[in-house]
């Protein structure tokens, strides 16, 4: 399925590729304004939804309930501390091969996957022990 992307979607996708991290729709909106690309918040949300359906971006929900968006070409996983909310990126993707296997066995086109580990970070462990 080759969807025709709107100009707003193109701008958002480009921005997400440039920032190289997951950001919220609100932050995205602010960034667009700063670069003089006026776009309403509703348009930002609508474009993000369309890009998600096209399999171009992924959504991650933070422990505080906020949704952050990133380009799917960043296969990035995190260790997230439930105490301080700190997210530590991990270098490797342990399910990369599994993704290919599932695509084959289920004839399913996988756009992206999410994998996140929750626990307590080293600093919070130290604070707890003290
Ligand atoms: Zn912590
Ligand atoms: Zn991965």
Structure description:
With 130 residues, this protein is an alpha+beta fold. The chain folds into two domains: 1-72, Arc Repressor Mutant, subunit A; 75-130, Dna Ligase, domain 1 (2-Layer Sandwich), CATH 3.30.1490.190. Helices cover 42% and strands 19% of the residues. The protein has helices spanning 7-19, 25-34, 41-53, 96-106, 122-129, and strands at residues 23-24, 57-61, 67-71, 77-81, 87-90, 116-119. A three-stranded antiparallel β-sheet has the order 1-3-2. It has a three-stranded mixed β-sheet with strand order 5-4-6, with no helix packed on it. α1 packs across α3. It is flat and about 55 Å long. The chain binds zinc ion (ZN) (2 copies).
